[in-house]
C-alpha cells in the first residue's frame, strides 16, 4: 500500500514539474568568446538536461550549445578545450550552458 502511494506521489510531482513554465532564451548573433568543455546540439538529451537544471527551455531551438563554459578574457589564452563564440551567457546559468556557440580559431 505504501509503495503504491509513493509511486502515485512521485508521478504527481513529475507531472507538476513538467507543467512548470520555463523560459526559452533568445538566440542572438554570438558575441562572447568562451572556452567550453563540449559543444552539442540543442536537441540532444544532455543539453536538455543541463538547460532544465538552470530553468531554460530549449524546445524549438536548433543551435549549438556550449557546456561548462567560461569566458576568454585574455588574448592568447590557451583554452585547452573547445574555443567558441556564443550568445553572452546569463549569470544565473553559472557557466553550465551557453547558447548558439560557433567554433572559432584564435
UniProtKB/TrEMBL annotation:
It comes from Favolaschia claudopus. GO terms for molecular function: structural constituent of cell wall. Keywords: Cell wall, Disulfide bond, Secreted, Signal. The keyword Secreted applies. Self-assembles to form functional amyloid fibrils called rodlets. Self-assembly into fibrillar rodlets occurs spontaneously at hydrophobic:hydrophilic interfaces and the rodlets further associate laterally to form amphipathic monolayers. It comes from the Eukaryota. Belongs to the fungal hydrophobin family. The keyword Nucleotidyltransferase does not apply. It is found in: Secreted, Cell wall. Residues 1-19 form the signal peptide. Its main location: secreted. One of its GO terms (cellular component) is fungal-type cell wall. CDD domains: hydrophobin_I. This is Hydrophobin.
Amino acid at each position: 500500500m505504501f509503495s503504491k502511494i509513493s509511486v502515485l506521489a512521485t508521478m504527481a510531482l513529475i507531472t507538476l514539474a513538467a507543467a512548470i513554465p520555463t523560459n526559452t532564451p533568445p538566440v542572438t548573433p554570438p558575441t562572447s568568446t568562451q572556452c567550453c568543455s563540449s559543444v552539442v546540439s540543442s536537441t540532444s538529451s544532455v543539453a536538455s538536461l543541463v538547460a532544465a537544471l538552470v530553468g531554460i527551455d530549449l524546445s524549438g531551438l536548433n543551435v549549438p550549445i556550449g557546456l561548462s563554459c567560461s569566458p576568454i578574457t585574455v588574448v592568447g589564452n590557451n583554452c585547452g578545450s573547445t574555443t567558441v563564440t556564443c550568445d553572452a551567457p546569463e549569470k544565473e546559468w553559472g557557466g553550465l550552458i551557453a547558447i548558439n556557440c560557433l567554433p572559432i580559431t584564435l
